[in-house]
Amino acid sequence: MAFRMLTAAATVLVMATASASDGPVVLAGGTLVDGYGGPPLYDSVVVIEGERITAVGTVGGITVPEDAELVSTEGMTVLPGLWDMQVRLARLGHGDEPRWAETYLPIAERVVMPLAANQLLSEGVTSARVLDAPLQAAVSVRDRIRDNRIPGPTLFVTGPQLGKLPDHREALQQWQVEGEADARSRVAQLAAAGADYVLLAETNLWKDGELQAAVNEARVRNLAVFSLADRAESIERSLGAGVDGFLGLDQSVEPALPEALLEAIRERATDASRRPLSWSPAISALLNYEDLRRNPEPLDDPRAVEGLPPLIAADVLTSLRPLDRLGWYELPASRAPNLCTRLWQLGGAGVDLVLGSDSGAPAHLHSRAAWQEIDYWVRRCGLDAAQAIRAATHDAATAMRVEHESGTVTPGKYADIIAVRGDVLRNPALLQAVDIVFRRGHRYR
What we know:
The protein is built from 15 helices and 19 strands. With 445 residues, it is an alpha/beta fold. It folds into two domains: 17-80 and 409-443, Urease, subunit C, domain 1; 85-399, TIM Barrel (Alpha-Beta Barrel). α7 links the parallel β13 and β14 (245-247). The protein is globular, with a radius of gyration of 21 Å.
């Protein structure tokens, strides 16, 4: 597969999506779901000037600039751009990990990550928290997006996660921590390189002093600290060290989280003296995998690989057949029935559930992942659609400490706005076909 050919194809596909208006833009007529979780606003009007929202109201209720470009949202739901708080940007859902590491990681920065970013933005994801990506590449792609050189969501990156075991999987970016001084040094390295947050792994294996050293150094560097929730002991240890939140759910096949662990989570989540404890459970990756094992037809939908060069699209789809050969998911049939129980337990414990899909994991394509996470929360687990949307907007922005700039359709905030034909509160699956996408005032769809 020729590197030059892939790079050229990616450039054409990525750079062809952005457009900007010279003056104000007005979105008028749709039903606004503002991200706070309150009642919708009918016949809404949203005024955008430059990168920001300058006014929100109803038709006839606010003054519209005379020189504004009018965009009709009649018959649509208007809402904040979605956040995906668990994105594997250096991967495109490919199922063959060794082949992916050998063929695609060398071109992650120039080809793969821009393609993934473009797919996410086209599907209405205007902000994303990235994990499992090379540090230099992640920072470079983040900065190019912020400078409007390539389209994509506003990215928050960490680079390598910090863990205790040697990294035997080439596609996983992890730095091994040995001792308290090394923990501090690793966090300082991430901060100096431009990371936005710190991600801890295998915290059940860390010594107490190491964990606290990493968290304290992150505090000094003004970086949020999150932990992978891979085991009950990892969750308990991370809570004790004072992390800001968790990614994923534990790998146990037990029907529910232990009550003692829930009490520790509840105590931290309800501590009013600290920032909210966030959690991106990312249930859709495993549930999507189980659904595709029963019916792989969605992979034949051309929209599944829309935005990818034909050679890469064909390689990704070929790597996923048959799905039973994928070794990424542990005990999927046993774990799947317990995910909704854990979701409800965490919500009941006072945790700020935030939307994270684990998009980019095998068979979990960036073009389908975010809306699926919302849909599974609502359709499979029975959560309220407004709560799921708040988790994908306001609460996600709060978890990344940018709620003053993003996460709701509010005057003064960035104009990260999407619109979808139909009533999303009645049918969240409509989000799989987003009609309008604005990120920071630039229209991409």
